[in-house]
Write a structure and sequence with these properties.
mainly alpha; 2 helices; hydrolase activity; coiled coil; single chain; Alpha-beta hydrolase superfamily lysophospholipase
């Protein structure tokens, strides 16, 4: 199973170096945008957990 990071890397490479139709390019870009948004949500959730853990009394 590919990680989000791996999928993003593959999509970026595909968009940069492959001959894609407009439809394929739009689909790849939309998928890349979805993955980046998902990663951002996961990063924010992780940051929030770390902040809560650091803020709670020992």
């Amino acid at each position: 199973m590919l990680t989000i990071h791996d999928q993003v890397r593959e999509l970026r490479a595909e968009l940069a170096s492959c001959a894609l139709t407009r439809r394929e390019r739009a689909q790849a870009r939309a998928e890349l945008d979805r993955l980046l948004a998902r990663q951002a949500r996961m990063d924010r959730a992780t940051d929030a957990l770390v902040f809560v853990k650091e803020a709670s009394p020992a």
